[in-house]
Design brief:
Helices cover 10% and strands 51% of the residues. It contains one helix and five strands. The protein is globular, with a radius of gyration of 13 Å. InterPro entries: DUF3850, PUA-like_sf. Residues 3-76 form the DUF3850 domain.
């Protein structure tokens, strides 16, 4: 499954350059390992036209005792 997500320019650039290999997101899209994230750069209330795709490798959730708020996930991606 593919998920289209908005991403701010400063984070988009780091993902594009493969320096940022995770996303912190609300857990409302039923993410699964192997799904594709289509990250769409979003700046000044509009899309810039830049996009990149990443694959979900691992999903961290349900660890409130370590500070991850309920209803959120950290998505490891490549």
């Amino acid at each position: 499954m593919e998920h289209e997500l908005k991403i701010l320019p400063q984070y988009f650039e780091e993902v594009k350059n493969r320096n940022k290999t995770f996303e912190l997101r609300e857990d409302h899209r039923n993410y699964k390992v192997g799904d594709t994230l289509r990250l769409l750069e979003f700046d000044n209330d509009q899309y810039t036209g830049r996009a990149c795709n990443r694959t979900i490798l691992y999903i961290l959730k349900d660890v409130e005792q370590y500070g991850l708020k309920k209803g959120f996930v950290i998505l490891a991606m490549k």
